[in-house]
Design a protein that fits this description.
Elements: H1 24-33, H2 39-52, H3 63-81
Helix pairs in contact: 1-3, 2-3
Length: 100
């Protein structure tokens, strides 16, 4: 299990740093925890979202943790959509109810 060595409340929230660097340690983490994810492409999209998209100007206390959460979420997306996957979606069993 991975644990961050960061005491709660010890950091001030900041906008995504420039430059945002994808380190060797981050790539290694992703290879273990998000092997189906194209880490380089998803990191580009992560940076674009937080710099130019809906996340622009929003602040976080721990950007690496935010990045890891995105990689884990993308891994889950790929696992759900992989051919032969037995992972179910939160939408399984969803039905549209018409008002009558």
């Amino acid at each position: 299990m991975f644990e961050l060595d960061i005491p709660r409340g010890s950091r001030t929230a900041v906008a995504l740093p420039k430059p945002w660097l994808l380190t060797a340690e981050m790539k290694q983490w992703a290879a273990t925890h998000a092997p189906l994810v194209d880490v380089t492409e998803e990191t580009k999209q992560f940076v674009e979202y937080w710099r130019e998209g809906e996340g622009k100007g929003k602040k976080k206390k721990n950007w690496e943790l935010t990045w890891r959460n995105r990689m884990k979420r993308k891994q889950g997306d790929y696992e759900r959509t992989a051919p032969g996957s037995t992972v179910t979606s939160a939408w399984d069993g969803y039905k549209e109810v018409s008002e009558g």
